[in-house]
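A favour, since you know our structure tokens better than I do. Go ahead and set the record down below.
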Amino acid sequence: MAETASRTMIRTEGRKAFAAFDGRPGGRRHPLVATAMVLPLATLLVVVFGGWEAVVTQASSVGVMLGR
């Protein structure tokens, strides 16, 4: 049992050390900020790869599956 306690301490200390180098603040991002960060890349991917048709196709497939 003593071995288990020491391993747990080592893992906990390792997590603390990793968190110190993570660079992110402890709180969560506001959903609007996260959306603003993702939208430019999502728009670029839709334009470059023609993803709009894929989204429409998937949405219609899901609608058919649900019986609508």
Notes: The chain has three helices and no strands. The CA atoms of residues 31 and 37 lie 10 Å apart. The radius of gyration is 22 Å. Residues 2-20 form the longest helix (19 residues).
